């Protein structure tokens, strides 16, 4: 990598990291391009050279967050564990209760997914994002296949779809509980952690 390429990469990283921090702490509508430039330590003209449109930065942040998720699934796939244990670890990973940074990032992805259709030519603009999502789904499918091969997960073609549904539902429920944490603290049993343990137990028992 040349010095010029290295400097360009550093500026690109600074922009994405600044935008990630701003977008996950605020609504992206309230964040201005100048805010991102200021936090990245660059001029507004430089920012527009890298990202001519705000939605391009939003997509870049979504890719950044999802890349972190992909790293988790890749690492999990490399581990030597029974398939059912790996699925249990996926549930644990989806639990954002008490982790404000991860929760804010998950909220960003939820909003991004809900509004992605508003991005011009989103299938092309967010192609990398969709590629990562598909790779994560492919890894989960492999985890299920390997779990069936080692005998820790039940057989059948529908099991992969069942597990995908469980993971999605568990993640949504975990994020909802995390968002309701203040309310749940005022209520009696069961608290958020207990509810997640119950749901995890139901799903894991279904897979045994």
TrEMBL record:
Q: Which residues bind DNA?
A: 32-51
Matching entries from PROSITE patterns are given as: HTH_TETR_2
Does this UniProt record's set of keywords contain Repressor? no
Gene Ontology MF term list: DNA-binding transcription factor activity; transcription cis-regulatory region binding
| Coiled-coil intervals | none
InterPro entries per UniProt: Homeodomain-like_sf (IPR009057), HTH-type_TetR-like_transc_reg (IPR050109), HTH_TetR (IPR001647)
UniProt keyword list: DNA-binding
Keyword Glycoprotein present in the record's keywords: the answer is: no
Pfam families referenced in this protein's UniProt entry, alphabetically: TetR_N
**Domain HTH tetR-type: where?**
9-69
Specify the domain of life of the species encoding this protein: Bacteria
What is the name of the protein in this document? TetR family transcriptional regulator
């Amino acid at each position: 990598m040349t010095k010029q390429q290295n400097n360009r990469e550093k500026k690109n990283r600074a922009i994405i990291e600044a935008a990630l921090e701003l977008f996950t702490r605020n609504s992206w509508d309230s964040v201005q391009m100048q805010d991102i430039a200021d936090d990245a330590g660059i001029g507004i003209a430089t920012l527009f050279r890298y990202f001519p449109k705000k939605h391009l930065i939003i997509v870049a942040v979504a890719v950044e967050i999802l890349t972190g998720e992909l790293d988790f699934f890749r690492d999990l796939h490399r581990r030597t564990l029974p398939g059912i244990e790996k699925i249990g670890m996926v549930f644990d990973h989806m639990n954002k209760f008490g982790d404000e940074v991860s929760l804010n990032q998950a909220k960003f992805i939820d909003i991004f997914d809900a509004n992605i259709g508003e991005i011009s030519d989103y299938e092309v603009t967010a192609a990398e994002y969709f590629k990562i999502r598909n790779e994560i789904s492919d890894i989960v499918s492999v985890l299920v296949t390997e779990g069936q091969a080692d005998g820790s997960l039940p057989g059948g073609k529908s099991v992969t779809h069942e597990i995908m549904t469980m993971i999605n539902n568990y993640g949504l429920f975990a994020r909802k509980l995390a968002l309701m944490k203040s309310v749940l603290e005022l209520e009696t049993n069961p608290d958020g952690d207990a509810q997640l343990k119950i749901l995890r137990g139901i799903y894991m028992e279904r897979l045994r």
